[in-house]
Every structure is written in structure tokens, then in C-alpha cells.
From TrEMBL:
Keyword tags: Methyltransferase, Transferase
Superkingdom to which the source organism belongs: Bacteria
Keyword Cell division: no
Gene3D superfamilies: Vaccinia Virus protein VP39
GO molecular function: methyltransferase activity
Record PANTHER family: TRANS-ACONITATE 2-METHYLTRANSFERASE, TRANS-ACONITATE 2-METHYLTRANSFERASE-RELATED
Domain Methyltransferase: 36-128
A Pfam cross-reference name: Methyltransf_25
GO annotation, biological process: methylation
Claim: Transferase is one of the keywords in the record: yes
Listed name of the protein: Class I SAM-dependent methyltransferase
Species the sequence originates in: Janibacter limosus
């Protein structure tokens, strides 16, 4: 079950997601008239950038978080945009097939990539481009170790799903994609020690863990994880892929 996000705090942070979004968008080939799906659009940064490149096209932006969508809808009021709440583990049922799909920093929050990719493939026209990135194998290993040391026996189940290149290629093929390129990219992000690093951890990374803890424990948990990580660097490893619907 997807969880809620603190969208206002999210938007106030120095997010490496901005570079990740730019990298994804650079790979999408558009004439300006396409219909593009932003899967896990969050607060709409890349949705807005897509609309700029689609003067005669349109964007469908979906996300499972009401709070993220509320901010997206406050920021973007455009007749070329259709945005609504949707859990990507469920079929999309769009009124027409999309010409392309992008996704940034979302898929590692979803356990079943077979189902996820099949749902996206069903929403795309043949030949459509699918460009996405998310946390990949080895992502935030130092954060994971700090969380494990902090929680000890209380750690309960996986929060993230960091896929590797081989599994991702097979799952994309099985869902009906071709011309597949997949790679892992180490991409550490440096933050300011103290408040900024702790806010980043709490808002962007540890939300799934915080859900499982009593609210009275949140602040102490985040501080302890930050202290165990030491240098305020998040050891991101991105899984990037580009494919075409067969
Ligand atoms: C780190 S944010 C990324 C948002 C945006 N793409 C960006 O780069 O800023 C991850 C997003 O994935 C969304 N998400 C997680 N699981 C989802 C699911 N099953 N279906 C749809 N969205 C989901 C969350 O609600 C959140 O907005």
C-alpha cells in the first residue's frame, strides 16, 4: 500500500532528483505534440518541464500520494495536464494510449516490477518510448546499514526494492519492451550536516521506516541514523533505463 509524503518539506529540499529528472527528459525524443505519462509525478517538477516541451501535446501525471498531487495541482494549472491519484501496481485504463512514459525516483518504492512494467506497457502505444530512473542495486547501502544498526531486532521487512540491470532487462522484455538499455550509475549526493541532512533523511529517504515507528520516536531515530552515517552524503546508485514498446 503506497504511503503519504510530506510534499511541502520535500519541495523545500535541495533534491538531486532535479538532475535525475533532467537526465531522463534529455533522453526522451519529442516533436511537441505527444501525450506523455509521468508515472509517480510527485510535486510535478518534471511534469512542468514536459509541458514546456509539448506545446501541442499533453501530459497525464499520476501519483499515489494525495499530498504530492495537491502541491502539483497548486503549481500547474494547464488544460494540457490531466493529473490524478493512481497506484501504479494497478492498471491505468487511460482514455487513449500514451506516446511515451517517464518516471523519476519512484519505482524502488514498488515491490513488483513485473506488474508495474506490464501496467505501463498496456498504457503505451507500440513504438512509444519508456525512460525511467530509480534507486538500483546497492542504492543507499550506508543508510541501510545505519538503519539496521539503529533498529537492530526491530527492523521488519524491506522498505525499498533496488533492482539490478539483469532483472530489469528481463522484466522489461517480459512486459513487451524492446530496444532496452539499462545501467547502474553511482551518484552520491552531499548535503549540509545537521538540520538539512536530517530533514532530507526524514522526508526523502526514511519515510517508509518512520511509518513503522511511533511518532514520539521519529526525531531520535532520524538523528541516530544521521549520526551513524557520519559524513552527510547519501550513497545513491541509480538504475536508469530506456526502452521502446514493441
Ligand atoms: C521520491 S518521490 C519522486 C517524485 C518525483 N518523480 C520527483 O522526482 O520529485 C516518489 C514518488 O513515488 C510515488 N509512489 C510511490 N509508490 C507509488 C505507487 N505504487 N504508485 C504511484 N506512485 C507511487 C510517491 O507517492 C512519491 O510521490
Amino acid at each position: 500500500m503506497p504511503r503519504e509524503w510530506n510534499a511541502r518539506s520535500y519541495d523545500s529540499l535541495p533534491l538531486p532528483h532535479q538532475h535525475w529528472g533532467t537526465r531522463v527528459l534529455e533522453q526522451v525524443t519529442l516533436t511537441g505534440a505527444e501525450h506523455v505519462l509521468d508515472a509517480g509525478a510527485g510535486t510535478g517538477r518534471d511534469t512542468a518541464a514536459l509541458l514546456e516541451r509539448l506545446p501541442r501535446g499533453r501530459v497525464t501525471a499520476v501519483d499515489a500520494s494525495d499530498r504530492m498531487l495537491e502541491v502539483l495541482q497548486e503549481k500547474i494549472n494547464d488544460p494540457r495536464l490531466d493529473s490524478y491519484k493512481h497506484d501504479l501496481t494497478q492498471p491505468l485504463h487511460l482514455p487513449s494510449l500514451v506516446d511515451a512514459c517517464i518516471s523519476i525516483a519512484t519505482f524502488h518504492w514498488i515491490a513488483d516490477h513485473e506488474v508495474l512494467f506490464a501496467n505501463i506497457a498496456d498504457a503505451m502505444r507500440p513504438g512509444g518510448q519508456f525512460v525511467a530512473e530509480c534507486g538500483g542495486s546497492g542504492n543507499v547501502a550506508r543508510v541501510d546499514a545505519a538503519v539496521a544498526a539503529t533498529l537492530g531486532d526491530r527492523q521488519d521487512g524491506a522498505v525499498w526494492h533496488f533492482a539490478d540491470e539483469g532483472d530489469t532487462r528481463s522484466r522489461l522484455e517480459a512486459a513487451g519492451f524492446t530496444d532496452i538499455q539499462v545501467r547502474l550509475r553511482p551518484d552520491p549526493a552531499k548535503l549540509e550536516e545537521g538540520e538539512q541532512f536530517e530533514a532530507f533523511l526524514a522526508t526523502v529517504i526514511l519515510g517508509g521506516h518512520l511509518l513503522k515507528l511511533d511518532e514520539s520516536e521519529h526525531e531520535g531515530f532520524v538523528k541516530e541514523v544521521a549520526a551513524r552515517i557520519g559524513e552527510p552524503v547519501v550513497d545513491y546508485v541509480r538504475l536508469e533505463f530506456n526502452a521502446r514498446k514493441a
